[in-house]
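G., the chain you wanted modeled:
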Amino acid sequence: MSRIGRMPVSIPAGVTVDVKGNVVHVKGPKGELTQEMHKDMLIAVEDGQVVVNRPSENKLHKSLHGLTRTLIANMVEGVEKGYSKELEVNGVGYRVAKQGKQLVMNLGYSHQVIMDEIPGITIDVPAPNKIIISGPNKQMVGQFAAEVREKRPPEPYKGKGIKYATEVVRRKEGKAGGKKK
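Predicted structure as tokens:
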């Protein structure tokens, strides 16, 4: 058995999990998520826990076993607590603001970069150099954060750009840094 796959996913209070065939629907205080899992995986709700089993020991089923269990665990955690990513904007004149449902960024280009808030994701700008992206779907939060970061990734010489709050940008010396007498 898979070490991860055999662990049952406990369902906390206030969260409901409904399984119809291979479609898992999770509802909680932060929202609702529905995902279709692989047709071969055997998913059941027993005694306040979601149990995932595999039909055989072949390589495909072994790899899907842990994946399916982890996807369901992420859905349960997402509707209960939610996920968030924090981004920092570094650079002279670089700043962000939220106007209505749009994220407006001044990133040193000749124009402003504007991104629309997508359904299921909330954007918060507590300071002109901080962006907090949150929502119940882990994949959507991570994808949107990556798309925002992609607009101006951090550069290694001065560290200017958009980076994750936990990210460490490896710095390089400039041309003058290596000169010796």
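The mean pLDDT is 91.

Shout if anything looks off.
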